[in-house]
Amino acid sequence: MSNKALGYKAVVIFTGSALIKSKYENTSIILPEKFSGIISDLIEVDFVDEVLYLKERPDANEVREIIATCEDLGVTFRLRSNFQKTSISSAVKTDIADGKFLSFINIPNNTFALAIKKTMDINIALMMIVVLSPVLVILGLIIKLTSKGPVISKVSKVGWKGRQIKVYRFRTMYLHAERKIFYRESDMKMRSAGSTFEDDPRITKIGWFLLKSGLDQLPELFNVLQGEMSIIGPRHPLEGDSIKSLNRKYS
Q1: Which residues contact 169 (CB under 8 A, 6 or more apart)?
Q2: What is the spatial distance between Cα 185 and Cα 47, in angstroms, rounded to a whole number?
Q3: What is the rounded CA–CA span in Å between residue 49 and residue 71?
Q4: Residue-wise pLDDT tens digits, 68-95
């Protein structure tokens, strides 16, 4: 952290040291070591790229648990180690500042394969935009002519390792729908958890069709062009989903 050129910013430090707490409490969140089990939740809701384990006497079970968490979430794990002859097939010896680490790089590091995949994503997205351009134009015109507001809306979603991205969608709701009172209080109480957008009066007629057919997601092709999404890959959760799950878990 003292070597600014390395570009590290400590989001959270788990420690029982009063000295470390007093030194870094103004720049980082300091939590007791017993809360280290929430690392997975922190990675999901914050910008965490690496986890560094700096104990002089590592706890083997703790290390294994954290490594497993980092593997699942695609985060690099670095274990401080002064053993020169240590050889672990999945680890790479690295030097950071004045420390020696065994680094478990749990993200795709085949740059050639990644470049090929990204090129394919961009080419496929570009081809689909060209082929579907008449459909995009027609749907855009219908949305514009049938209700006030922009044609495209932006939905906040959580991308890779908790990074927030704005996903492009065709607008399916009336302008300022969230601020308008479409329900009486009694109606809100009667709505069941299983109710769908078909019953939601905030949604326009063309919006109902777009949601039902999935055509509202066509503008996501432009997110692919920007490198924020992939043609083939897991769906990104809504921005609040990870935070809500964290609140439920620790409330």
Answers
A1: 152, 153, 154, 155, 216, 217, 219, 220
A2: 39
A3: 12
A4: 888 777 788 888 887 655 555 567 788 8
